[in-house]
Amino acid sequence: MKIFLVGFMGCGKSTLGRRLAARLGYKFVDLDELFEQKEGTTIANYFVSHGEEAFRKEESNILKYTDFSEQTIISTGGGLPCYFDHMDWMNANGKVIYIQMPPKALANRLEHGKEERPLLHGKHGDDLVAFIADKLAERETHYLKAGIIADGLSLTAEKLEEILASS
């Protein structure tokens, strides 16, 4: 069964996904990395060159038309679940886990992250927390359609494995 990880940027989708895949003997795919390989550029550069609408369409194509094996954990981009019919599609094609975290915890992780994230450019401290809170309020209605909602604050691959086994 395919397992899709959704949630806001910085919640741990890629890190937890890699660890869970290793525990289960599954393949791991990060859709953002797959996008960048396919397009030969970073998502940040793609956004600048082509705009968000083109990015969302291409991201959708990668999600729906990549032939993932059944034993694959797929980490999605933070915005992907909020466009088109992606949550319904993922729920129909595997198990979806929403890694839920509060805005302040996400801000702490993202403030000290090494990755360049286009949506966060120039935002720090309270401005970053407020931005995340607003974005999360918009996105959470989509995220909450996931079949499994996991508290991301102390989540480990071991806990995720237990949650999956009992679902």
From TrEMBL:
CDD domains with a match to the protein in the record: SK (cd00464)
InterPro entries, per the entry: P-loop_NTPase, Shikimate/glucono_kinase, Shikimate_kinase/TSH1
Binding site for substrate: 32, 56, 78, 139
Keyword presence, DNA damage: no
Signal peptide start and end residues: none
Residues given in the record as Mg(2+) binding sites: 14
Superkingdom of the organism of origin: Bacteria
GO terms of biological process kind: amino acid biosynthetic process; aromatic amino acid family biosynthetic process; chorismate biosynthetic process
Annotated GO CC locations: cytosol
Pathway: Metabolic intermediate biosynthesis; chorismate biosynthesis; chorismate from D-erythrose 4-phosphate and phosphoenolpyruvate: step 5/7
Major subcellular site: cytoplasm
Documented EC number(s): 2.7.1.71
Subcellular location: Cytoplasm
Family per record: Belongs to the shikimate kinase family.
Subunit description: Monomer.
Entry protein name: Shikimate kinase
Gene that this polypeptide is encoded by: aroK
